[in-house]
């Protein structure tokens, strides 16, 4: 007898019967939730026809079926170029998105592999990671529409006046939390510390502008699967869009290569960045400008605390100690970080 699918807490199991009939993918044998995603829901699914990853596109910002189909077509074109991705399975009608009960689902072949953070990569493997992201950006330039590609986009950098208001609001929320715990203590310390840093560096707000292109949008360790030492599949293309490419490279490095104490492994960053620049055709000055913008973004960003105190969502809490310490360390070691990316 097939074991019923076990749903994640607070949600409903996916409609396996209807989905598998839609995809002609046999009958369910086992189905287990994959709990590493913060925005969508995923399941490890085994059927009488094979093994699959079943994705429930739950995040309202990225769950529009036509938009999901467009992203699916992009991954198929990337696969045709040899980029390691896992394009979705087509259903009986040729579509790759199934809408059942008002919810959007997609079925992908299961890719066996594991996630690896920067501490688990050698210097050569860090270079391979940077080259992979460069290949992604260069390949997207080939397969995606030319509209908007390479133009100068004027995104607004964070205004410290707005950030001060956010800090004040979060400090008030921390103060009201009872009973106070160690997370509250760290949050209060980091908020006060960040206010001082912003007051000291408010005149370093980046200018508007920057060259943009198509990017993955969420390139980090949980969206990259390795088989042995080799990247096997880049997954989760929900944030595919037009953004500053060099900033994605810096943002990804700040996630891959952050140590638990909140510092970056700069020798590994350097190997990664050199390979990225070579394969993406990016210049040192573009990386230096991206370092400045991402540093400023980190200095003004409190999304983890906003999830915790405004939404009562604690899933990102384990990331907060290192991420909040990184903003402070990065400010102190700004020149060394910039040189690692651009040197």
Provide an overview of this structure:
Helices cover 45% and strands 14% of the residues. It has eleven helices and nine strands. β4 (98-100) and β5 (103-109) form a beta hairpin. α3 (123-143) packs parallel to α7 (266-280). The radius of gyration is 21 Å and the shape is globular. Residues 1-10 have low confidence and may be disordered.
Residues in helix, %: 40-55%
Spatial extent as radius of gyration: 21 Å
For this structure, the CATH topology of the largest domain is Aminoglycoside 3'-phosphotransferase, Chain: A, domain 2
- Flag low-confidence runs: 1-10
Strand order across the largest sheet = 1-2-3-5-4
N-to-C SSE series?
Answer: HEEEHEEHHHEEEEHHHHHH
The portion of residues forming beta strands comes to: 5-15%
The biggest beta sheet is recorded as: 5 strands, antiparallel
The class by helix and strand makeup works out as alpha+beta
The CATH homology group name of the largest domain: Aminoglycoside phosphotransferase (APH), C-terminal lobe
CATH architecture of the largest domain: Alpha-Beta Complex
The total beta strand count reads 9
CATH top-level class of the largest domain = Alpha Beta
Structural domain count: 2
What's the number of helices? Answer: 11
The N- to C-terminal Cα distance equals 60 Å
Please tell me the overall pLDDT.
Answer: 92
């Amino acid at each position: 007898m097939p074991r019923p699918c076990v749903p994640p807490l607070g949600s409903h199991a996916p409609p396996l019967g209807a989905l598998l009939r839609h995809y002609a993918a046999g009958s369910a044998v086992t189905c287990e939730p994959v709990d590493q995603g913060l925005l969508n829901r995923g399941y490890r699914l085994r059927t009488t026809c094979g093994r699959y990853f079943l994705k429930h596109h739950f995040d309202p910002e990225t769950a529009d079926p036509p938009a999901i189909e467009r992203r699916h077509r992009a991954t198929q074109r990337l696969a045709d170029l040899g980029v390691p991705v896992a394009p979705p399975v087509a259903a009986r009608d040729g579509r790759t998105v199934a809408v059942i009960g008002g919810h959007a689902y997609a079925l992908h072949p299961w890719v066996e592999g594991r996630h690896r953070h920067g501490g688990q990569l050698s210097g050569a493997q860090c270079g391979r990671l940077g080259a992979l992201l460069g290949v992604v950006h260069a390949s997207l330039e080939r397969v995606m529409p030319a509209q908007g590609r390479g133009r100068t986009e004027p995104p607004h950098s964070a205004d410290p006046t707005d950030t001060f208001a956010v800090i004040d609001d979060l400090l008030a929320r921390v103060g009201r939390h009872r009973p106070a715990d160690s997370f509250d203590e760290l949050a209060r310390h980091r908020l006060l510390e960040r206010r001082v840093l912003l007051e000291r560096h408010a005149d370093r707000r980046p200018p508007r502008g920057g060259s943009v292109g198509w990017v993955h949008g969420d390139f980090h360790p949980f969206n990259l699967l390795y088989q042995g030492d080799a990247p096997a599949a880049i997954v989760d293309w929900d944030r595919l869009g037009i953004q500053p490419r060099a900033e994605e490279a810096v943002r990804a490095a700040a996630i891959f290569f952050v140590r638990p104490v909140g510092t970056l492994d700069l020798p590994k960053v350097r190997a990664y960045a050199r390979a990225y620049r070579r394969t993406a055709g990016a210049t040192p000055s573009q990386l230096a400008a991206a370092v400045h913008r991402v540093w400023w973004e980190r200095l003004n960003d409190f999304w983890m605390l906003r999830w915790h105190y405004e939404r009562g969502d604690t899933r990102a809490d384990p990331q907060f100690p290192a991420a909040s310490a990184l903003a402070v360390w990065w400010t102190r070691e700004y020149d060394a970080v910039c040189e690692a990316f651009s040197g």
